[in-house]
Fold these 2 entries.
Entry 1:
Amino acid sequence: MDNQQLKHLLRSLSDTPGFGGVPVEVTEERRKALLDRLGASATQRPMYTMRDWALFVFAGLMGTMVRPVAVGLASLVMVLGGSVLVVGASSASVPGDMLYPVKIASERVQFSLAASSEDRAKLAIEFAGRRLDEVQTLKTSSDGAGRVKEAVGNFRRQIATVNTHIQEVSQDKPEAAAALASLVEGRTEEYEKVIRDGAVLEEAGETQDELLLAKNEVAEANSAAVEILVETQERTPDTSLSSNELQELFHKDLFEIESRLRVISSRLEVIDTVLDRRAEDLGVDTVAEHRDLVFDIRASMLEVEPTLADARALLVAGGIRKTFDLTKRLKDGMNAIDEKLARLEIGISTAAREEEPDF
């Protein structure tokens, strides 16, 4: 007898009473007697159908699939929620700040999602306003001196974008050009005034050159917008700005030019006083150089005055196109005067600081 046969024999004899085994019937009777004594009943094993097994398998698969998706969605909500907070925090950032790239990236996303060329042009003019706000913020910041030039460069690039998109709109959708041009005209006029009157031009060196270029580019954008308004009125007088509205616009421009002339005249009088009082400190050559520039500015102002009178006469006569041309020439002349005056004032301030004794 080999090992396998021996194992089979022992297994067959294990349940016989002679070898200490208990028959299955006896075990069942004892279990029932014990249950009766405890007051319990026999537990029946549940019977599962094929439908039950199918539902079990489906639930397992869904749990396996949904769990990672739920984790991913939760992560996405956290990321997006965090991104919204970061973008919100970046709105007040300026060039050189850690969050400034986030601010620019969010603007680019808005720009790429714009549905039309008009929307892109409106965003461009809005972003230009933000760039100018950044320039002003850095000018008043204790540690912003070295970053003003970068901010001005950003503003110039944004204004160039405004010019590009307003021209696109005027070519692709002339019917929408007038409303957009009116918006651009108003905003660029505000920007030009901020640069001219808001002490933004008090920088020296390369930064001042950038600011003067920016001021001229804003003036060009403003002029382009007004020209679109004039062209639209000439092409479709019944559906665009009326002649009266354009006349009101030019009246405002001419009045502003006249006001600027008075302000410049007052500033020149102050410069005359400073040159008289500080002649010994500044030196003969420096004073002579500055007086020549004062004379040059006053001569330019004398050239503006008759052109201003001509523009007013044309406007009264209803010559919209010719009034626009003269107004543009007047604005260009005033911008040149502003540039000379800014350089003169910076030159006098620089010379005065150099002559101050060191203690």
Entry 2:
Amino acid sequence: MCSQVKDIVSIRLSHCRAERAASEGQYHLAALHYRNCLEAAERREDSQAVRFFALRLAHCYTSMGLSAKAQAFADLAEYAPAQPVRRRPDSDAPAGGALG
């Protein structure tokens, strides 16, 4: 649990740094911080956060004129699952699955 809290705090700090850099037009720096956030979201298997940070990266790369990279991150956001498959702690079946 403690490592999850530290991870959330580090994601939040990176997100704040990225937002500030983007607001100042420092898109290379913003992309660096958003990439850290995206990687942390992927480790946490948080599909909503993956979509959010992928879209933020797409915006940064668009602003830098790197349309191919922007499209790659836009595609990642589009194909990230809407909700992760949650498993019951005592089973390999999905949480909504039958109890059998």
